[in-house]
Task: inverse folding
């Protein structure tokens, strides 16, 4: 059965934002260990990436190979190429078409969409934001596991991941991994 994982990029106060902090901004000649763990090591495993419309358009604009910036480190090209070739699902009621290759648009109830994707052939499924979609997964306990990438900042603004829940969600801690840049990865699976 295909596993559904949600990536949750959050500040310490549970906001979906990418604030600047000293370590975050240093130029990298190779991916950090956490980035490698979250992405490169999963390239073979994850064959579908799901995103809300805003994140999908943001990723296309920033991370497709067409958006390549001159002089950037070569390892980022591998990430761009992965995002171009992977099967991508953009969740949207209003978008009718997309020119990002290997992409399709789906709408409807999120639980129904995820059930449908699970039934398709393929590897694992990654929900790569945005916060609105991930918040719905957390509220309704829709993902099989969650990778919380926690940044060392209390930000006080940006979309919240935590809010009212449909019921208690119990999670089982699988691993913790500190990053070189003061972030921490918390990997939990849902208990069902
Ligand atoms: N990993 C990340 O991508 C990430 C992480 C942290 C912060 N952020 C930031 O968060 C912002 C975007 O996040 P967001 O939470 O506002 O937006 P989002 O989750 O990327 O997209 C929300 C949109 O997805 C569509 N959608 C969601 N569920 C749907 C469903 N079941 N069926 C059909 N369409 C559905 C709707 O689009 P329609 O209006 O088209 O129906 C909705 O307006 C960006 O500024 C980004 O930089 C992103």
Result:
């Amino acid at each position: 059965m295909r596993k559904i994982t949600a990536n949750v990029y959050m500040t310490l106060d549970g906001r979906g934002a990418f604030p600047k902090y000293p370590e975050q901004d240093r130029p990298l000649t190779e991916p950090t260990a956490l980035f490698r763990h979250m992405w490169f090591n999963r390239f073979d495993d994850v064959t579908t990436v799901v995103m809300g419309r805003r994140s999908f358009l943001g990723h296309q604009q920033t991370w497709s190979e067409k958006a390549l910036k001159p002089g950037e480190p070569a390892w980022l090209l591998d990430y761009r190429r992965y995002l171009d070739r992977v099967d991508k699902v953009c969740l949207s009621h209003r978008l009718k078409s997309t020119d990002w290759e290997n992409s399709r648009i789906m709408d409807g109830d999120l639980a129904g969409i995820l059930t449908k994707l699970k039934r398709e052939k393929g590897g694992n499924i990654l929900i790569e934001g945005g916060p609105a979609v991930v918040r719905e997964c957390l509220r309704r306990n829709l993902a099989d596991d969650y990778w919380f990438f926690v940044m060392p900042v209390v930000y006080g603004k940006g979309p919240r991941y935590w809010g009212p829940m449909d019921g208690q969600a119990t999670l089982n801690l699988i691993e913790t991994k500190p990053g070189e840049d003061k972030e921490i990865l918390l990997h939990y699976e849902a208990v069902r």
Observations:
- The chain has a mean pLDDT of 95.
- The two ends are 15 Å apart (CA to CA).
